[in-house]
Each structure stands twice: as structure tokens, then as C-alpha cells.
Amino acid sequence: MQVDFYQLSRDPAEIAVALIGAKTIEAGKRMLVVSGDDGQLARISDALWAANDRFLAHGLAGGPHQERQPILLSDQPDPANGATFIALADGQWRDAALTFERAFLLFDGTTIETARATWRSLNGREGIEQRYWKQEDGRWVQAT
To answer: What is the dihedral of CA 63, 19, 3, 59, to 10 degrees?
Structure first.
């Protein structure tokens, strides 16, 4: 499984989730977006409505037709939509993410220490590939 660490410096999590969500759908996958902050989930929903001047289909966990949503927003890491990708938008690692094919941990200056601790705890674990991404000149680049 792959864990991608996204350090947010220019854009907020909702913009990054919309970009990741578009790529996820293009790849024919489904994604679960998790945040313990209801306000953040609402902002992510708004960003998905306006992503790239087109709507990215999504819904809220517990809502109608949740199982059909390509992107599902939730406060719990339960993939009711059958997602194989998970985005942890609030910067908080959840071990349930290890059951997914790919996890995205988005973090900023307020959650950087938590992200570093997560990196260390996952480092060297069998079957886990870690990647670190940062924003550079308005683009996401993989850091080495």
C-alpha cells in the first residue's frame, strides 16, 4: 500500500482534495475523504462542486446513495462507497487507512509534528511505500 504525505503550504486541504479527487476518478477509483471537522467537510464539498470548472460527483456518508458516490465525505474511515483510496484531510492519521490501497495524509503547519510522527511510525514497515509531496511554484512535486 502507498501512503502519500502532502504538505500544504500554498493551497488549503479542500483544493488539494479536489485535485486528488479528479485524478482518482480519472483512474477509475473511488475515494473516501475523512475529516473530524464538519466545517472542513463542507468546504471540501464546495470545492468538489467547482473543481476544474466541473462538478466532481460526491456525497456525504449516511446520505442517500452513499454506496454509489465516487467520492464520499465522512468523519469516519468507513468506505461505504467501496473506496480503495482514502484522503485524511484534517491531518490526523487513522490506522484504518492501512486497509486501503492508497492513503493521502494532508497536513499543514499546525499538524506537521503529527505527520512527522506518522512518517516515523510507518517507516520501514513491510508493504508500505511512503512518498512525500510539497508545493513548489504552484505545482506538487515529489520530494526526495
So the answer is: 0
Nearest to 101 by CA among 1, 28, 17: 1
- Specify the residue for cell string 492508497: 102
Instruction: Check pLDDT > 90 for residue 55.
Output: no
Please give the single-letter amino acid code of residue 49. Answer: W
Tally the residues of the chain.
144
Residues in CB range of 137: below 8 A, 6 or more apart: none
Domain range 2-143, CATH architecture? 3-Layer(aba) Sandwich (3.40)
Contact status, residue 69 vs residue 57, Cβ threshold 8 Å: yes
Residues 14, 71 contacting (CB under 8 angstroms): no
- pLDDT tens per residue across span 93-116: 999 999 999 999 999 999 999 999
Q: What is the pLDDT of residues 58-93, one digit of tens each?
A: 999 999 899 999 999 999 999 999 999 999 999 999
The secondary structure element, H or E, covering residue 91 is none
- Can you say whether the dihedral through the CA atoms of 134, 22, 73, 29 is positive or negative? negative
